[in-house]
Amino acid sequence: MDIRLGAQAKSELAAHPAHFPAIVQRLKEEHEQMRDQLAEIRTMAVSLYSLTDCSIGMCKLIELQDRILSLVEELEQHSEWEEKELFPLLQSYFSRAKAFSIARSIIVLEQDHDLAKQVVKAYVDGVNAMRVPIDMEFLHYMTAELVRACLLLLKHFTLEEELVYPLINQILSELESASI
């Protein structure tokens, strides 16, 4: 049965070989775009450590809140696409044993994703609960929370890419071999 499942997915990919590279391209472009946004957010956040005026810091915390919420919304749409299209395609392509291993790895990735969302939520809740005027301790604490969220999200992308890219490369190689 597991050989048939993999063979069926392979024949579907072979029948529509242009579809898979488009999926791969979308994955890479979206990850690159979100990584760039995370780098910008993190750079802006780190710059808050050198501020001497807390009122400017308060405005920057709000601006960064808007940016991280926008990024999280994009990430949610991206994750939904991965769960509906990319991950099932990868799992169906490989044997049952490898698909099971992939599924377990995806669960770990989802847990990482959830942890990052919890840290983002803590940041957002903290910014929403700000009392004017803020002090440097609060500014630095909130900055640290945001930097931590950015690092967790970057780690999430890295782990996902370390799992998915070798699988993608294997599929692309087999598709290329089948077309020769």
Q: What topology does this entry show?
A:
Blueprint lengths: L1 H14 L3 H29 L6 H40 L2 H33 L7 H44 L1
Helix pairs in contact: 1-3, 2-3, 2-5, 3-4, 3-5, 4-5
Protein name: Hemerythrin domain-containing protein
Pfam families: Hemerythrin
Task: Describe this structure as you would to a colleague.
There is one protein chain. Helix 1 crosses helix 3 (54-93), helix 3 packs antiparallel against helix 4 (96-128) and helix 4 packs antiparallel against helix 5 (136-179). The protein is an all-alpha fold. 89% of the residues lie in helices and 0% in strands. It is elongated. The chain has one domain: Four Helix Bundle (Hemerythrin (Met), subunit A) (Up-down Bundle). It has five helices and no strands. The two termini are 28 Å apart. 20% of the residues are buried. InterPro entries: Hemerythrin-like. This is Hemerythrin domain-containing protein. Residues 23-168 form the Hemerythrin-like domain.
